[in-house]
Every structure is written in structure tokens, then in C-alpha cells.
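Input (structure):
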């Protein structure tokens, strides 16, 4: 039975993905944190539609910041976010008239943080569970390109204790979504 499921489940998933809209997001990614200065970086996402309203998304982002740049007490920070989650886009006639989509996402994943204090020659690595919530607008320019703006909130908790919040802050993302396969909305003419 396990051998049959091993072949049937991937086949069903692959066949549903081939009929779905498949996309990649490239964006500039900005984040605030309670333990580090404002960070800037980039994000790259991969996703596919489950139905007309829901997308499954794998999101990855890298940000960096430097505190006291040029001082002997300079501290550099790097953050790597790896998420998996979903986006829900409810349909509103007023937004569709202007080819806009309202996206709402919820994600869970890993936050790997690194900091280095040059004066103390001290490095610190941390791995935490990270949760993020986003909302934003996307302009559907045509069948293949859609610029977007997302804002959201994230918090990272210790792997052993959900309520031990290690890191939290706001995030903003400005980018472009590239659709590769599938028809997104043939009735609207784009």
C-alpha cells in the first residue's frame, strides 16, 4: 500500500500543478526588528494556484543591516527567512475593474539570524520558527506580469516554546510576479 501511495500522491500533485498558474516572485524585501536596525534585502518566491482564490507559496528572503557603521563597535546583521504558506485573494468587482488583486498571506518557516560584533570578535547564530502575515495589492498588467506591494508582520519564537518571542517586526515587499503556466483570468482579457 505504501508503494502505491508513493507513486499516486506525487502523480496527483504534479497533475494538479500542471493545470495551475505557476509563478515566481522577485522583490526587494525590507524588515524591522526589535534586536537589529532596519534591514534591506531581496526575496524570491515560487508558487502555484490551488484554485481561483488560493495559492501555495514557498518564500525565501535575505536581509542585512549594519549598526554603527565605520565605528570600532560596528555590528553587522544578516537574516535568512524560509517560509511555506498560502495566499488568499478574494474577488471584488471594484478591484477587478482596475485589474487589481488584494492578496492576504500566512506563512510559517525558519528564521536564521547571524550577527557579528567586530570590536568583541563575537559571532552569534540563531535558528527560530518564524510566522508571518501579509496583505497587499497586485496589479495584473497582463497574463504574465504583475507588480505588487505587500506589507505585513512577522514574529519568531524559540523552537521549544511558541510563546517565547525572540524577534518581531514589520515587513514590506515591492516586487514583480512572473506567471509561467495556466490561464489566470481569460474572461477579463488580460
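Output (sequence):
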Amino acid at each position: 500500500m505504501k508503494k502505491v501511495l508513493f507513486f499516486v500522491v506525487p502523480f496527483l500533485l504534479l497533475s494538479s500543478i500542471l493545470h495551475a498558474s505557476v509563478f515566481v516572485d522577485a522583490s526587494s524585501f525590507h524588515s524591522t526588528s526589535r534586536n537589529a536596525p532596519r534591514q534591506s534585502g531581496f526575496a524570491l518566491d515560487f508558487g502555484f494556484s490551488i484554485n481561483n482564490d488560493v495559492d501555495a507559496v514557498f518564500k525565501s528572503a535575505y536581509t542585512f543591516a549594519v549598526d554603527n557603521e565605520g565605528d570600532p563597535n560596528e555590528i553587522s546583521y544578516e537574516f535568512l527567512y524560509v517560509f511555506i504558506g498560502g495566499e488568499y485573494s478574494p474577488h471584488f468587482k471594484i478591484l477587478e475593474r482596475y485589474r487589481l488583486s488584494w492578496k492576504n498571506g500566512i506563512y510559517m518557516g525558519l528564521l536564521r539570524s547571524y550577527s557579528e560584533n567586530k570590536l568583541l570578535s563575537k559571532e552569534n547564530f540563531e535558528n527560530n520558527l518564524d510566522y508571518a502575515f501579509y496583505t497587499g495589492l497586485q496589479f495584473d498588467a497582463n497574463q504574465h506580469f504583475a507588480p505588487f506591494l505587500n506589507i505585513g508582520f512577522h514574529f519568531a519564537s524559540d523552537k521549544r516554546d511558541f510563546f517565547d518571542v525572540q524577534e518581531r517586526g514589520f515587513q514590506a515587499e515591492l516586487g514583480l510576479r512572473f506567471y509561467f503556466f495556466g490561464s489566470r483570468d481569460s474572461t477579463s482579457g488580460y
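Notes: The beta strands are 22-31, 39-49, 54-67, 75-88, 100-117, 122-139, 145-158, 161-181. The first helix runs from residue 2 to 18.
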